[in-house]
Amino acid sequence: MRQQLPPQIKKVELSSRDHGRTVIRYQVTTDVGTDPVTGKRRQSRKRYETEAEARQALADVQDKVHKGTYVHRRNETIEQVIERWLAGRTNITDSTLAGYRDYSRPVIDAYGDLPVQELTKHHIDVMLAQLEAGTLSKSDGTKRRPFKARARQYTLTTLRMVLESELEQGHLVRNVAKLVDMPSPERKAMQTFTAEQVTTLLKKTANNPLAIAWHLALTGLRRGEIAGLRWENVDLDAATMTINETRVSVSGKPQKRLPKTETSIRTLPLPTALMEALKQQQARQKTLEIVQGETYQASGYVVTDSRGQQVLPDRLSRGWSRACDTSGVPKIRLHDARHTCATIMHLQGVPIVVIAAWLGHVDAGFTMRTYAHNQPESLQLAAQSFAKL
Hints:
The protein is built from 14 helices and 8 strands. It is of the alpha+beta class.
């Protein structure tokens, strides 16, 4: 005996005909809760060719609604979802927010107009491959530079966070970004200067306006610590400097930040060479102030430009690259100057725990694994030691 249709299923006769017969469809209308924003009742409505398909669909939707796993069809695009997620990041620093924005930009370029519920693992795999190859186009039509593994990792991590938020809000069935393999990081050998190369660079850049920055870098300071060092934290009488501030670039503008960890806040004794370099920098700034008069605006920072203003971290990196070129030493990263400091101290027999304290690390084991590198010259000395056994 034919069962009566439940109230959620309606038999609909279409205007079209098939082989002279009226086309029949079964429309399923189901209450699926209320909209969390408007508070209005939400309904799911879909048509099926057969009564059996309609009954099964009704049962599936009701089961998901009962379990709280039903996801209502939404037309929000990936760009809209990302922008809403970024707007909700209120408890993070401006630099972190800028990073999220930068690393979500390739996703918007690739699939900004795509409804977020239609995003698949394949979409993300294709985007990451294009980022690696440098074939992904920006919104203006130009190609993005190739992304290294770390940059692709940040992009995927940011997308995972966005989709996880949508999942927790009940807007997605699953976080497809979690199905994508995280790009493997490149294994990159750390590069450091020898003691002779350190001497060469400092001598040949002695008259460079940023010479004091290279002294500080080779003394083990981070880039942000170099840019954030103020004269009020340098005591030339006691021969000490206190590291308690860093400067970062956010959209091309400097912003003050506290050091990375509590151990990053430290007071260091000044090595003789750095002490002399600081005195020279102080004298240079006073001379510029006298010569320029009111046009000179003293900022109170140790590393400044010719007008007395602080130098952005990005400019330090570019200046360091040029300093390596003009000095004829291997071109290593500015952060590798910090590696150089740790390595030379290590080769001079300074205990690892002391090096860790000097660099502002919490874990001496991390210092040993990451910053202290044996150099070829030290390995030669080790080989020669066998003759004494």
